[in-house]
Amino acid sequence: MFKRLPDTQGAAVAVTIDGEPFNAREGDSVAAALLAAGRSYCRETPVTGAKRAPYCMMGVCFDCLVTVDGIGNRQGCLTRVEDGMRIETQHGKREARA
Amino acid sequence: MTAMPLPKDHYDVVIIGAGPAGLAAAAVAGKAGLSTLVLDENAQPGGQIFRAITSTPVQRRDILGDDYWRGENLVAETRAGGAVIVQGATVWSLDRDLQIAVSLLGQSQIVKARRVIIATGALERPFPIPGWTLPGVMTVGAGQTLLKSSGLVPDGKVVLAGTGPLLWLYAAQVLRAGGAIDAILDTTPRGNYWRALPYALPFLMSPYRAKGLALMREVKRKVRVVSNVTSLAALGGDKLDAVAFSAGGAEQKIAADTLLLHQGVVPNVNLANAAGVAHRWDERQLCWVPVLDADGNTSVPGIAIAGDGAGIGGALAAAERGRIAAVAAVEALAPGKKSLTPDRSELSNTLRRAELGRAFLDVLFQPAQQFRLPEGDTIVCRCEEVSAARIKETIALGTEGPNQLKAFLRCGMGPCQGRLCGLTVTEMIAQARGMSPDAVGYYRLRPPVKPIALKELASMPHSEQDEKAVVRG
Predict the structure, then answer these.
(1) Measured between alpha carbons, how far apart are the two ends of chain B, in Å?
(2) Contact B146 A2 (CB under 8 A)
(3) pLDDT tens profile B208-252
(4) Domain range A12-89, CATH class
(5) Most buried among B87, B198, B325, B380, by the most CB within 10 A?
(6) Is residue B16 classed as helix, strand or coil in its secondary structure?
(7) Could you give the CA distance from residue B272 to residue B134 in angstroms, rounded to a whole number?
(8) Which residue from B86, B82, B284, B256 is spatially nearest to B181, judged by alpha carbons?
(9) Which are the contacts of A9, defined by CB distance < 8 A and separation ≥ 6?
(10) Can you give the pTM of this predicted structure?
(11) B258 to chain A: which residues are within 8 Å by CB?
């Protein structure tokens, strides 16, 4: 659980997380937005289905992999939020699509 | 095909990473008139230490402190020097011909350099305790990134655990910001104070001493600190509920919503390793460091490494090493421009001062064996979910090194490519076989060092000759 400092600046950025609207802030990464939204996890692993959340926030652990605008396995901590962005949690293995 | 996003495909100097080392190197190379390109993966320059320095939403400057805001000058100096700084650029390959493959805006392209300076810095040392993969468990560095870039502080019951300067710095920053920390579990082994004593004199003369002690005092006034913690476990089902630990022989448990772990930082060796740069095991820092000369040159001609990726030295040393590597690049490529670069011996002196006290910190904050060599069900490889027990069993079969272990168990084969398990695996094999980590070796890494989409590879520019090499008939 994380909370925003009361005097932080930055414009609201409207995204959806698994279809639900959320106002992130300008400068947030997707992973930061998920934590700010109170999401306890962002994916289930391909191996055992265990729940995972962002761990390193600097692009090295790959635990914050999410689907962004329909593209899977994006590193949430290295992707910045944009207005209208669709963020989805991942469940198990990615499926190949035609 | 759309136009490639980079203005040119060849530069005198390409610098990978825009932290203190990369920025300082770019400032020197750019000012000397070399065509200089900085490729950085993040959205803003600064690396980890100066993360979001140009965009942080944190208004009160005392929260992050003077050492952070110093990064503003470095970015300004680099921008004034004429180097091209490209953000959001993920370098996924570097070879001996100094060809760099970089992914930018969903497209990949090759850039050719006459000299390369790798400034990819450090990452936090793996901290494999039971439950470290549970949601709610993160690194202290991750917490600090959230504060710097998004103005977020942990809420609910917060526990910090581990050892090292960053733990205390972050705790102080959270408290200044008005956040609360329920407990700090200090895992610094008691014996380290004695072992570090022979290195104490230079530390006493360094600026770290006063700063470090002041930080610890500031934090200890407001937070319950438990010293000499000898075991740690994160407990919970789908997410963290509590932290179990022992200190002074007594087992304890505290409820927690967030557990932030830290036991020092280690060089991020992936790109250099994949480029064929020779590394050696550093016994004091307990990690791999590249083999370098005084200018930062590696075993691969034309490739230098500066900053914490060259061995942990901190932000001040990183910037000096960046400048030194850039002066060497100017000497090699444009000796006539030498007069436009800073004095080499002065840089060495500044570097020596910045490194004062480092040996003391290395030994004092050396993580205990039980936090580096996990047992039982504790996960070692987070990506492929390989436990310590399975690794131990497989080593006992006669596994010779990390690469064979990777073939048997897939540890190190997931997307993080060993960044979160490699050191643990090397040390586990070394311990089981009674060998030195140097003799055990590390994963042989190959490009792409960061995963990229297949369509990005397929749509890279290629010649008729390239096509003939792979198309039949």
Answers:
(1) 26
(2) yes
(3) 888 899 999 999 999 999 999 999 999 999 999 999 999 988 999
(4) alpha beta
(5) B325
(6) strand
(7) 31
(8) B256
(9) B57, B59
(10) 0.96
(11) 1-2
pLDDT in tens, A2-39: 999 998 888 999 999 999 999 999 999 999 999 999 99
The count of residues in chain B is: 473
User: How buried is B468 (Cβ within 10 angstroms: 0-12 exposed, 13-18 middle, 19+ buried)?
Assistant: exposed
Which two three-digit tokens encode residue B188?
């610094």
Query: Would you list the DSSP string of B274-303?
Result: HTT--EEEETTTTEEEE---TT-B-SSTTE
Q: Which residue has the tokens 């402190």?
A: B65
Among candidates B60, B154, B238 on the partner chain, residue whose Cβ is nearest the Cβ of A2: B154
pLDDT in tens, B382-414: 999 999 999 999 999 999 899 999 999 999 999
Of the residues B51, B120, B152, the best mutation for testing chain A's interface (the one with the most A CB atoms within 10 Å of its CB) is B152
Measured from the Cβ of residue B1, the count of other Cβ atoms closer than 10 Å reads 7
- Facing B382 at nearest CB: one of A57, A63, A71: A63
Q: From the CA of A29, how many Å to the nearest CA of chain B?
A: 8
Tell me how many residue pairs between chain A and chain B have CB atoms under 8 A apart.
Answer: 137
B137 near A CB under 8 A:
yes
Chain B nearest CA to A14, separation (Å): 15
Compute φ and ψ for B131, nearest 5 degrees. Answer: 85, 10
Q: B142, A40: Cβ pair inside 8 Å?
A: no
**Backbone phi and psi for residue B346, each to the nearest 5 degrees, phi listed first:** -65, -40
Q: Tell me the residues of chain B between 279 and 318 that have a Cβ less than 8 Å away from chain A.
A: none
Task: Tell me the CA distances in angstroms from B426 to A34, B84, B87, B403, B440, one per residue in order.
Answer: 34, 38, 33, 10, 6
Q: CB distance B416–A7 less than 8 Å?
A: no
Mean pLDDT of the region B241-265: 97
H-run or E-run covering A66: strand A65-68
**Residue of chain B whose alpha carbon sits nearest to that of A33:** B150
Residues of chain A with Cβ-Cβ distance to B136 below 8 Å are 40, 53
Question: What pLDDT shows up at residue B1?
Answer: 38
How far lies B320's CA from each of B57, B251, B330, B344, B347, in Å? 29, 45, 15, 10, 6
Q: Answer yes or no: is pLDDT of B3 > 50.
A: no
Residues of A in Cβ contact (< 8 Å) with B151: 4-5, 8, 10, 25
Structure ipTM over 0.85, yes or no: yes
- Alpha-carbon distance B160 to nearest alpha carbon in chain A (angstroms): 14
Question: Residue B4 pLDDT > 80, yes or no?
Answer: no
In the beta sheet, which residues pair with residue B107? B104
* Span A56-97, pLDDT tens digits: 999 999 999 999 999 999 999 999 999 999 999 998 876 655
Query: Any bridge partners for residue B465, and if so which?
Result: none
Residue B135 has its nearest CB partner, among A8, A36, A41, at A41
- Mean pLDDT (chain B, rounded): 95
What's the confidence (pLDDT) of residue B465? 86
